[in-house]
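Changelog-linked ticket: 2-phosphoglycolic acid example.
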Amino acid sequence: MVANWKMHPPEVAAAKSLLLSIKKVASGLPHVQTVVCPPFPLISTFSALLRLQRKVSLGAQNIFHENAGAFTGEVSPLLVRDSGAMYAIVGHSERRAMGETDEIVAKKARAALHAGLKVILCVGETARDPDGDYLGHIRKQVRASLALVERKDLNRVLIAYEPVWAIGGTHAVAGHDIHQAVIFLKKVLGEIYSNEVAREILVLYGGSVTPENVTDILKHGAVDGLLVGGDSLDIKLFGPILRAAETVW
Ligand code: PGA
């Protein structure tokens, strides 16, 4: 269960207090692994706060595709790892909207994996069309984004299906529709690799997950986890979402 905090909250004190309340809920859920992805400057502080427990891990929301160099403003995957993160989100639609292409996403995925991080690779269509052309778009995104990933590293790749039109609202995709998308993603992974690899790769759903829709998504969506944005910033909302995962699974 991944919390993508995006560029929130803007104060360290509020961020620490939110992390500690998530830690409190998460440590009581034996079957759920929680991953908090805060803004970069919080990763090492949070790592110190989370020491000696295993139920909450940290992730970065982005990384650069080189380990070091003259790249002003970019962040090395090695530094992210050494700061205490175990995961990196790669190819989020908000980054793609800033100009990140599939080719850049592929390089970032490779760099994150080489640094020893697990990759949460985001894919998803901008809009759905009645003819199903969006499926072709997803296939292309998956193929291109994984193009530089070595087979031996696939066990550290998670795919997050995030339809762009469903992000940041209050209406998620219905569980049954998510299930169809998961079947499609597994088919594409089967085409690229093998059915066995397709079965093993974890698939998450992201886009307007709330305490109200979480049970439907977990029961009918056939996903292995969720990527939660807005509702991960309030423990009154994220707490019930985490607890639902424990109950449904
Ligand atoms: P949301 O964001 O839950 O606010 O829709 C999800 C995401 O962008 O990862």
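Closing comment: Example verified and attached. Residues 4, 162, 167-168, 206-209, 227-231 surround 2-phosphoglycolic acid (CB under 6 Å). The first helix runs from residue 12 to 26.
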